[in-house]
Predict the structure.
Amino acid sequence: MLPSKRRIKKRKDFERVFKEGEVFFGKLFTMKVKKNDLSFFRFAFVFPLKQEKKAVKRNRGKRVMREAVKGFLPLLEGGFDIIFIIKKNLLEEDFQEIKKETEKIFKKAQLIQ
């Protein structure tokens, strides 16, 4: 579980990232990134109802993504708000593949070296 200060909670923060954020596409998820005024990263994980109707599967996808991102927290510097929009095919992949895709998209966004 990510610490409370590492989560995007307010509606205005979500809207700001969705409207103004830079978009990076991956095969398992889409990542929207926007610079914030804080000295740390904040995250949100969205699994649209259109992608998966069952709440159990959506929640599992979000839990897996939180765990994959948690491993990269020490490597991330600066302050950004990041929203992951999860695709349905994430549920079919194993955890190592999800971590590889997460690392790949962080490098694509130049958030880690």
